[in-house]
Design brief:
- With 639 residues, the protein is mainly beta.
- The chain has a single domain (2-638), classed as TonB-dependent receptor, beta-barrel domain (Maltoporin, Chain A, Beta Barrel).
- The chain contains four helices and 37 strands.
- The strands form five sheets. It has a 22-stranded antiparallel beta barrel. The chain has a six-stranded mixed β-sheet with strand order 2-1-5-6-3-4.
- The chain is globular.
């Protein structure tokens, strides 16, 4: 009960604000909002075959392909839901017309709006794991075109591995419309996480899978508690004057952590006995300034519309991390809970890793009515990386590259269109995981290439079909036999993707999609160890189906269901171990109702209803696991 008071009391002041009857949180529905099956997030809800960690088998989050309302954003710590209204994955036809696309897709974040004056929306949530949370969002208007969206949240999280944490967040999005032609927007987002238990990482000592793990049970020890905070802020602006548009933004993003831990469970060949280790790391910091400024000039001649875009964007990123200290906690059974006293860690000096990147670009877009659309772009990027080791000489690398892109869409009739694109990129490779010998170190940038083409068809019953082919090529990065997270070769992901959105009858919405690929690896000649043909964790087939049904005989009641399938995938670099295929499904209901003209939504969702067990490879022979069957409930209101 004390936790409930902790959640409710900080929000009481916001709940007291006078409000009007409007909708803010009660109408959030990712299924009905989705324009395709490639990835949509609205508030708390996400659907789609892709997300910010996986687009066509690669991670746009790791690659650094984030935007905030179309402008470049180097995302280090995330933007909380108190500020972020949702995100859209731009890939395939939804990326057409982008002046400067990215090979791994673009994740475009949208900031919360403050267009609805005087609305406050509390949202209380709980889960079958035992978590509790309260979020409160409000919108307020001020004189002279100034308005603001404000949100706070408090969460007692409990995870599917039995761990837990405490979080609180706050965010504000002020907006100033000086006129129809001039608009300024800013945001501030802060999330503090305390006592976050380290997820256990399972490493079998041989070519087998640890298939007898009891989920939702924390294996200890209890001192593996991480404290950190993520913070982001920035300002965006847009000015329109005649045929010219000027827009830009500058952003700060950071993730600052105290002492961090990795819980390592090495599983013996019998599958039951283990050796437990803890890797402790010194405080770390990942922070960057980033931004983009664009000048757009548009003009028309009859049915032809022309748009010229000049962009200059950049970032300055500083990372600080250090070597870990490993502690042997002894042996224990696979599912035993181990307790130990926290050692008195004395860490050595840290490494400073600095990246500066400046990119200029010029793009031309032609939109010719009933003929088609084409966008041609060229970017020139200057990438400068410097690493200062504590006991060694600093290392510096400079990369300069031309990054061309071209995309086109051609309508063949009223409801049928062809599309295609080619793009090259220089993208981040991310950081080495905590179980690697070079844990937390930042890897150099990748040269990447993508080609895609397909068709988009509009059919009766508000049905849209997208069928496309893609081919993406990037370096292959994973653990080698020395436990070093490094470049092992190249990987190529050719495949087909399918998206269907439909409203076949009134009240029924269907969003379904699939990826049918053949990801393959080519090892570099310098690698002596065996490298299999399949990249780790990449199934040949993924498919997802979501259905939303408004019950005609029960006004306000909506049923929904999903099914998700993943085929077999490689679990080790040499491909000697594989993850079997799996299917999971779930569903729920949403009840929209009113009390004294105030809107409410009760949402119940059940996930992994069949309690499917699936190991998740996060490195060569390194695993976590999916959540067991669980449920969430939330109650939202708009006052």
């Amino acid at each position: 009960m004390s936790n409930l008071f902790k959640i409710v009391l900080p929000a009481m002041a916001l709940l007291a604000i006078p409000t009007a009857v409007l909708a803010q949180r009660t109408d959030e529905n990712a299924v009905t909002a989705a324009e395709d099956a490639f990835g949509t997030t609205v508030g708390r809800e996400s659907i789609g075959i892709y997300n910010d960690g996986n687009v066509r088998g690669f991670s746009p989050s790791t690659a650094g392909n984030f935007r905030i309302e179309g402008l470049y954003f180097d995302n280090q710590g995330g933007v909380t839901s108190t500020v972020n209204d949702g995100q859209t994955i731009h890939v395939g036809p939804s990326a057409q017309g982008f002046a400067f696309p990215a090979p791994t897709g673009v994740v475009d974040l949208s900031l919360r709006s403050s267009d609805q004056n005087g609305i406050t929306s509390p949202l209380f949530s709980t889960s079958s794991f035992g978590g509790l949370g309260l979020e409160v969002d409000t919108q307020t208007a001020f004189p002279n075109g100034l308005s603001a969206a404000l949100g706070v949240g408090y969460f007692e999280d409990v995870y599917g591995d039995g761990g837990s944490s405490t979080r609180w967040s706050i965010g504000v999005v002020p907006q100033w419309r000086l006129s129809e032609k001039i608009e300024l927007k800013a945001f501030y987002s802060h999330e503090q996480t305390l006592d976050d238990t380290s997820q256990a990482i399972y490493i079998p000592q041989g070519n087998f899978l640890p298939n007898n793990i009891v989920r939702a049970r924390y294996p200890g020890p209890n001192f593996l508690l991480n404290d950190y905070y993520n913070q982001a802020f920035g300002v965006l602006g847009r000015v329109r004057t005649g045929a010219w548009t000027f827009k830009g933004g500058i952003f700060r993003s950071m993730s600052i952590g105290d002492v961090g831990y990795s819980s390592i469970i090495r599983v013996a060949s019998n599958g039951q006995s283990t050796q437990r280790f803890v890797d402790a790391f010194p405080p770390n910091a990942y922070a960057s300034w980033s931004g983009e400024f664009r000048t757009l000039r548009e003009f028309s001649e009859g049915q032809r519309k022309h748009l010229i875009t000049f962009s200059i964007r950049g970032r300055s990123k500083t990372d600080r991390y250090g070597d870990g200290i490993e502690t042997d906690l002894g042996s224990a059974d696979l599912n035993a809970t181990v307790q130990a006293q926290r050692p008195n860690y004395v860490f050595g000096p840290t490494t400073d890793d600095m990246t500066d990147q400046l990119t200029g670009g010029l793009a031309y877009n032609l939109n010719w009515e009933r003929v088609g659309e084409i966008t041609i772009g060229m970017q020139r990027t200057h990438y400068n990386k410097r690493v200062e080791f504590p006991d060694l000489a600093s290392v510096r690398g400079v990369t300069m590259a031309w990054l061309p892109s071209v995309s086109a869409a051609v309508p063949l009739g009223r409801n049928f269109a062809l599309y295609g694109s080619y793009v090259r990129g220089l993208e981040d490779a991310g950081t080495a995981p905590g179980f690697a010998s070079n844990a937390n170190s930042v890897l150099p940038a990748n040269r990447t290439t993508q080609f895609d083409m397909g068709v988009k068809v509009k059919l009766p019953s508000k049905t849209t079909l997208i069928f496309g082919y893609y081919d993406v090529e990037k370096p292959y990065i994973d653990l080698n036999t020395s436990n070093l997270y490094s470049f092992l070769g190249k990987q190529r992901h050719p495949g087909f993707e399918l998206s269907v959105t439909s409203t076949p009858i009134k009240g029924v919405t269907i969003v379904g999609g699939g990826v049918f690929s053949r990801p393959r690896v080519s090892a570099t000649s310098a690698i002596a160890e065996p490298i299999g043909a399949r990249p780790i964790g990449q199934p040949d087939t993924q498919a997802q189906l979501n259905v939303n049904y408004d019950l005609p005989f029960a006004p306000g009641v909506t049923l929904d269901a999903y099914i998700d399938y993943q085929s077999l995938s490689a679990a080790t670099v040499d491909n000697r171990v594989t993850i079997p295929s799996s299917t999971s499904f779930g569903g729920g209901l949403r009840y929209n109702f009113e009390i004294e003209d105030k809107s409410f939504t009760l949402r119940v969702s059940v996930y992994n209803l069949g309690n499917t067990y699936r190991l998740i490879p996060i490195g060569s022979g390194v695993y976590t696991y999916n959540n067991p069957m669980n449920a969430t409930i939330y109650l939202a209101a708009d006052f």
